[in-house]
């Protein structure tokens, strides 16, 4: 496979993302009468979260992955988990070294840990099979396997993105808004200073305290506190420091996150893909409920363009005023697109040498490419949902996806050469 062909296969999906993002940015300007306004973007993000993404995950997983495939591909869930774990550790190290603004800390960890396991692999990996002289065998067989690997990767990525990454962004948002509101409370306020009876905080500081505050007031987060924002109340609860209590709290949060629509769709996609008679209800020309699958596919097709348009819409303000420093961008790009894939290559080769991987070079190629993908675009959706770091997130994604055109090409070229021998 020549370098020019490989460059085209690897860079075209990223170029498409950049073009659609540019269209979204243009739609958010006065030239399109501010079609992608801030309020509209927030509403569209909710549609993506509750409708489009679950439809895409379920329809792809239920159609492309069977029970036999899941059993033979048992290492892929481990591999995806390692990408998030190792990437999260690297992101945490960057945060400690760079000491960025609190608003950006969660984005850095999310960008380093959460790769695009969905639309890019579905486009890039099958495209490699279309090139002549590849090491992956006959085109039709390769293409079918590639779609299955990519669909499985997308479903697995959805679990981690909407649990681990979702929790990371939410936690960062809570801490940032608490700090921001604390600064507001400390600022001089003539109305409050002139009325000594105006309560900012009211309640006792006992074991389990509920404190009523004004709508703009927050309590600063600390290691032994949980802050729950409501319309006029903040619940401040001191937690037991025991290991068991902390584990129960973590498990409770995990269960809550697993109830998100994309995670639920992943579970049912797994169920319908694994159970033959359920699969036959939806999949196939003679399936009695095939119209449901067709409808979900139609809805799922709206996920990628909507997310990408939203990314471009958020970019309009990100280019004008962003607190992301060039050193931070360079560090994220190097960590996400070069350091993490290098670590992943050693992990996959070690697993192959131990004989725990299927005898399929395309499977190994997919595993390594999972480490090399740019950050998940759903990070932008989460930043919009929690209203934290929207501009910074847009800039991070813009530069990482731009750099991914080179990085993905380089890794694809190296892996194709490596797997050919």
Structural notes for this entry:
This protein is mainly alpha-helical. It has 2 domains: 3-181 and 258-419, Na+/H+ antiporter like fold (Up-down Bundle); 188-245, no CATH class. It has helices at residues 3-27, 38-64, 67-72, 75-98, 102-113, 119-129, 139-186, 190-194, 243-258, 261-274, 276-282, 290-300, 303-318, 326-353, 361-372, 378-386, 390-419; strands at 201-202, 208-213, 225-229, 233-238. It has a 4-stranded antiparallel β-sheet, with no helix packed on it. A hairpin with a 3-residue loop joins β3 (225-229) and β4. α2 runs antiparallel to α7 and α15 (361-372) runs antiparallel to α17. The model is unreliable at 190-240 (pLDDT under 50). This is Auxin efflux carrier family protein. The chain crosses the membrane at residues 12-32, 44-62, 74-95, 107-128, 148-166, 254-276, 296-315, 327-348, 396-419.
Helical content stands at: over 70%
Estimated structural class: mainly alpha
Inertia-based shape: globular
Main beta-sheet strand count, sense and barrel state: 4 strands, antiparallel
- How many domains, in number, for the residues? 2
Strand adjacency order, main sheet = 1-2-4-3
- Strand segment count: 4
- At CATH level 2, the architecture of the largest domain is Up-down Bundle
According to CATH, what is the topology of the largest domain? Na+/H+ antiporter like fold
Poorly predicted regions = 190-240
Mean pLDDT: 76
Strand content bin: under 5%
Instruction: Give the end-to-end Cα distance, rounded to a whole number of Å.
Output: 14 Å
Tell me the number of helical segments per DSSP (H or I, 4 or more residues long): 17
Could you spell the SSE succession in H and E letters? HHHHHHHHEEEEHHHHHHHHH
CA radius of gyration: 23 Å
Organism: Vicia faba (Broad bean)
Keywords: Auxin signaling pathway, Endoplasmic reticulum, Membrane, Transmembrane, Transmembrane helix, Transport
Membrane topology: Multi-pass membrane protein
Protein name: Auxin efflux carrier family protein
């Amino acid at each position: 496979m020549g370098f020019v062909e490989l460059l085209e296969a690897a860079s075209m999906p990223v170029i498409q993302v950049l073009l659609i993002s540019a269209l979204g940015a243009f739609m958010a300007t006065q030239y399109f009468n501010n079609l992608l306004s801030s309020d509209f973007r927030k509403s569209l993000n909710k549609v993506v979260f509750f409708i489009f993404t679950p439809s895409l995950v379920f329809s792809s997983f239920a159609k492309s992955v069977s029970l036999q495939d899941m059993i033979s591909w048992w290492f892929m869930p481990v591999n995806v988990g390692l990408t998030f774990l190792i990437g999260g550790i690297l992101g945490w190290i960057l945060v400690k070294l760079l000491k960025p603004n609190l608003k950006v800390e969660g984005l850095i960890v999310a960008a380093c840990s959460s790769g695009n396991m969905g639309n890019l692999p579905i486009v890039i990996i099958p495209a490699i099979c279309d090139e002549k002289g590849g090491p992956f065998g006959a085109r039709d067989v390769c293409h079918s396997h590639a779609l299955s690997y990519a669909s499985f990767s997308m479903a697995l990525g959805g679990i981690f993105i909407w649990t681990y990454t979702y929790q990371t962004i939410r936690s960062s948002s809570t801490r940032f808004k608490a700090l921001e509101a604390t600064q507001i409370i400390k600022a001089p306020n003539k109305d409050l200073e002139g009325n000594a009876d105006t309560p900012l905080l009211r309640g006792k500081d006992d074991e389990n305290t509920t404190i009523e505050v004004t709508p703009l007031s927050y309590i600063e987060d600390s290691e032994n506190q949980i802050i729950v924002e409501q319309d006029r109340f903040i619940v401040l609860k001191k937690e037991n420091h025991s290991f068991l209590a902390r584990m129960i709290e973590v498990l409770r949060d995990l269960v809550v996150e697993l109830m998100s629509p994309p995670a639920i769709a992943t579970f049912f996609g797994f169920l319908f893909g694994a159970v033959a008679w359920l699969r036959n209800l939806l999949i196939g020309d003679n399936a009695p409920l095939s119209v449901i699958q067709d409808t979900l596919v139609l809805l799922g097709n709206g996920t990628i363009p909507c997310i990408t348009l939203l990314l471009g819409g958020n970019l309009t303000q990100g280019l004008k005023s962003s607190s992301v420093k060039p050193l931070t961008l360079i560090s994220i790009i190097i960590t996400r697109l070069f350091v993490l894939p290098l670590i992943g290559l050693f992990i996959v080769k070690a697993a192959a040498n131990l004989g725990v991987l299927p005898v399929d070079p395309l499977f190994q190629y997919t595993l390594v490419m999972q480490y090399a993908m740019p950050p998940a675009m759903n990070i932008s959706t989460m930043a919009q949902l929690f209203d934290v770091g929207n501009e910074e997130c847009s800039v991070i994604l813009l530069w990482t996806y731009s750099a991914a055109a080179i990085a993905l090409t380089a890794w694809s070229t190296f892996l194709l050469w490596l797997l050919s021998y």
